[in-house]
Design a protein that fits this description.
Blueprint (H helix, E strand, L loop, with lengths): L1 H16 L1 H4 L9 H38 L3 H12 L14
Length: about 100
């Protein structure tokens, strides 16, 4: 009964691995150890991807927070000064070569 459970689980793992892992040894019969090793490899890759994604999300959150906390008032006042002094190209007359 114990062996039957083990064999059933290994067959389930084999079906979950998908064709990309099973292509590694197309002409030979996969042993149980091969299926277990491929499963460990797949789960390790999945965990690394998840850790990388978590790290990237933390960096993005920190970057967004710093951007929200940034003081843009000096830039805003500079733009306002340019507009009021007619140095801004928006308020200047268009140059027409004809």
């Amino acid at each position: 009964l114990r062996r039957e459970r083990i064999n059933t689980c290994i067959e389930q793992l084999k079906s979950l691995l998908g064709p990309e892992f099973l292509k590694q040894q197309p002409d030979s019969k996969l042993e149980k150890a091969d299926i277990l090793e491929m499963t460990v490899c797949f789960l390790t890759q999945l965990q690394q991807q998840r850790n990388l994604l978590t790290h990237c999300n933390k960096l993005q959150t920190a970057s967004d927070k710093k951007l929200k906390e940034a003081d843009f008032s000096p830039l805003s006042s500079t733009v306002q000064n340019m507009i009021t002094k007619n140095k801004c190209p928006i308020n200047s007359a268009l140059w027409r070569p004809w």
